[in-house]
Design brief:
By secondary structure, this protein is α/β, with parallel strands linked by helices. Helices cover 37% and strands 20% of the residues. It has 25 helices and 30 strands. The strands form six sheets. Strands 9-8-11-10-12-13-14 form a seven-stranded mixed sheet, sandwiched between helices. Strands 20, 25, 26, 27, 28, 29 and 30 form a seven-stranded antiparallel sheet that branches. Strands 2-1-5-6-7 form a five-stranded parallel sheet, sandwiched between helices. Helix 1 packs across helix 6, helix 3 packs parallel to helix 4 and helix 13 runs parallel beside helix 15. The two termini are 30 Å apart. 53% of the residues are buried.
């Protein structure tokens, strides 16, 4: 992680050099100076251009090294090929950092990649940190330091780290239309050639002007380091992320089921939340959720009370909350009685509460109802849905004053109970006075029921994280050598794929529960193994070159003793026909097994976040159902339990159709054992255990595949290409 002093000087510099300053008013080198001067930046500005003497009343210097005073940050707006010379010149100065705007680096092919490596090497040699290249710039809004040139960026408490210039402009524009929403800092992280996403987090966490950190992410070059940093920051400062690349196009290819299911965004969403980052899936949710988390207390639980002035809004709100896993609990008899006292007979006083016209003539009833609901022990948060704040427009102008009074009371109510309140109103875009009172006091007002529900979901998720943060993984491996003898032998032999036989031997050596197995190298050995099994057996061809044995016709189930020898010959013939050059070791013979639930448990080396584990419904339909959950390794017990809870088919785990429920504790222990196995064997790149039978008696591995990483590959992450432009 970078020196925090350097980051401080970069993010809040006392002196800035504009390298590539221009006398041409249409050029970035002129506009940057103009923006700083007119934006109220109080630090020193040093234009750098060997061909000019004065720009906007400022003395121009030929080089950065010619500036007589210390410079903290340089904005480099020269073409890409000039950047190395600029950095070389800065080598003798005390420059902390440089913002490299130019494109034509790592995002531009082989030559650009070489140029990017060159500037990173120069910067490292001279102790200079780089933002970018291929960045739209950076802004310290409170200091008037605008190195982007964007107009009207509203001041506020959100620190924005973004990988798209156009996305940043969209977020600036959206915030400008929302009362009480604004930014403390913006950084276009660009190619992350030097400074990475995670290196900004400690600064923003310590910054008194920043209440929440907002991310737009296309890819992270050091995702594992980000998880480690985010875990430290999120208990103090919420982080909200929108990760692009959710389509099937973004899924990585791999030989295992686990790899095939590890879509880029699927993994990112899971592991970011594991680190306490709140993820959103829609761009219109990002600022609303960030605003809620920056201004409201986290919810103590998932239970939301709904107060609506119409049945349609009440029903839609309940649906939206349920779709996001939130609960709409029934309120107590005491609360219902309090609501009965102020609402007409037609009103619904269960949850959702529909006032049924009870607020048409007296909007103060909103407060009476809200106070009753928020006081209810079954309620963790309140959603006020419908027309509130617009009664003065919809009905009569004099109602605006009444609603203003109610808004002030709602603010006091939320503070007194330390309970989050989110308002959804059809008049949210009208910026009425009641809405201004709410927004200025930190209560969000949004037009969309879905966005309101997303905000409440995030408040509940963040509250759950705060309660369990210390129980989650720290995302750090201990750097162990490979513990399993079978894996060491495979590495020495130059093999990347273990056969099922050697994979099971490695797992059994570690103490993991594997169905009994014998390797038969002849038909007679197969018969002996089947006889010992005392019942029908499963027979599978063993070859490190045939991963999916069923596709090769290399699996036979329920084989009786009389058919074992013939089946042995058939399996070998099918395998040799499928892969004539395959190294076939023999046939694995195991007793038939059954379990109430078939699981898949796997590990894949994600290109951004390193090794992650998957658990879900297994068997032959795993890639059809895709009912799986991911977490980054190493797992904690809390992580393992969360993974099980994330599986949608909970009824199967709980014992559907008369089956006994699976032993969840045994499954959790098993996941922790698999995590420990992978941690103890860093050469494992992919692990696929499918199926794993689970029932009330425990867990047993039926099939296993292990792929080893290419020698010399980083054991935690392989950098992913990322980039930014002004689009």
């Amino acid at each position: 992680m970078s020196d925090t002093t350097d980051i401080d000087r970069i993010m809040d510099p006392d002196a800035v050099a504009i390298v590539g300053a221009s006398t041409d008013e249409t050029k970035r080198g002129y506009q940057a100076i103009e923006t700083l001067q007119e934006g109220g930046y109080e630090g020193d500005i040093y234009p750098v251009n060997p061909g000019a003497e004065e720009i906007r009343g400022l003395e121009v210097y030929p080089t950065v090294s010619a500036i007589p005073s210390r410079v903290d940050l340089a904005l480099i707006v020269t073409p890409a090929h000039v950047v190395p010379d600029v950095l070389e010149d800065c080598g003798g100065t005390d420059l902390a950092g440089a913002v490299v705007i130019a494109v034509g680096f790592g995002e531009a092919g082989t030559d650009g990649e070489a140029l990017e490596r060159e500037i990173v090497s120069l910067a490292e040699r001279h102790g200079i940190r780089l933002i970018g290249p291929n960045t739209s710039g950076m802004i310290n809004v409170h200091a008037g330091l605008n190195l982007v040139g964007a107009d009207g960026v509203p001041e506020g408490g959100l620190g924005l780290l973004c990988q798209s210039g156009n996305m940043a402009i969209s977020l600036f524009t959206e915030a400008a239309t929302r009362e009480g929403v604004g930014y403390s800092h913006y950084v276009g992280v660009g190619n992350e050639a030097d400074l990475k996403f995670h290196e900004y987090l400690p600064y923003l966490n310590d910054d008194p002007e920043t209440d929440a950190i907002v991310l737009y992410v296309e890819g992270m070059s050091e995702g594992r380091a980000f998880l480690q940093a985010a875990r430290e920051v999120t208990p103090e400062t919420p982080i909200i992320a929108l990760k692009s690349g959710r389509s099937a196009v973004g899924k990585q290819s791999a030989s295992s089921h686990t790899g095939a299911l590890a879509g880029d965004s699927t993994v990112a969403h899971a592991v970011l939340e594991q680190a306490g980052v709140v993820s959103v899936e829609r761009s219109d949710e990002l600022l609303a959720v960030a605003n809620s988390l920056s201004s409201l207390p986290a919810a103590d639980g998932p239970n939301v009370g709904i107060l609506a002035d119409g049945g349609g809004h009440a029903t839609l709100a309940a649906d939206a909350l349920a779709e996001r896993g939130l609960s709409v609990p029934e309120v107590t008899d005491e609360t219902q009685q309090r609501l009965d006292e102020v609402l007409p007979d037609a009103a619904s006083v269960v949850n959702p509460v529909d006032v049924a016209g009870g607020t048409d003539d007296d909007q103060r009833v909103f407060y009476d109802c809200a106070e009753a609901i928020v006081s209810d022990p079954n309620v963790d948060a309140l959603l006020l849905a419908g027309l509130f704040g617009g009664y003065g427009i919809r009905f009569a102008e004099q109602y605006t004053d009444v609603e203003c009074g109610v808004a002030e009371e709602l603010v006091t109510l939320a503070e007194r109970h330390d309970t989050p309140i989110v308002v959804q109103s059809a008049y949210a875009e009208f910026d009425t006075e009641p809405h201004e009172i709410l927004r200025e006091s930190g209560i969000p007002v949004v037009e969309s029921i879905d966005v309101a529900a997303s905000s409440l979901e995030s408040l509940a998720a963040y509250g759950e994280h705060l309660a369990t943060a210390d129980e989650k993984s720290d995302f750090r491996f201990d750097g162990a050598d490979n513990d399993a003898a079978e894996i060491r032998h495979a590495i020495e032999a130059g093999r990347r794929q273990l056969s099922e036989y050697t994979a099971k031997r490695a797992l059994r050596e570690r103490g993991l529960p594997v169905v009994p197995f014998e390797l038969a190298e002849s038909p007679s050995e197969a018969l002996d193994a089947a006889t010992d099994a005392d019942g029908p057996v499963a027979m599978k061809v063993v070859s490190p070159d045939i991963v999916h044995k069923s596709d090769a016709g290399g699996v036979a189930l329920g084989v009786d003793d009389d058919d074992v020898e013939a089946t042995y010959e058939e399996l070998l013939a099918a395998a040799e026909s499928y892969a004539p050059d395959a190294d076939i070791e023999g046939v694995l013979v195991s007793p038939m097994r059954e379990g109430s639930v078939e699981l898949i448990v796997g590990v894949v080396d994600d290109e951004q976040f390193g090794r992650v584990m998957m658990v879900g419904l297994g068997g032959v339909f795993v890639e059809v159902l895709e009912d799986v959950a991911f977490r980054a390794l190493p797992l904690s017990e809390a992580d393992a339990r969360d993974m099980l809870d994330d599986i949608e088919a909970q009824e199967l785990l709980d014992g559907a159709r008369g089956n006994p429920p699976v032993d969840r504790d045994a499954v959790v222990d098993f996941l922790l054992e698999v995590s420990a196995f992978v941690e103890a064997n860093p050469a494992v790149e992919e692990l696929d255990l499918n199926p794993v039978f689970a029932d009330d008696d425990g867990v047993e591995i039926v099939d296993a595949a292990v792929t080893l990483r290419t020698p010399g590959t980083d054991t935690e992450t392989a950098p992913a290409p990322v980039g930014e432009s002004d689009d």
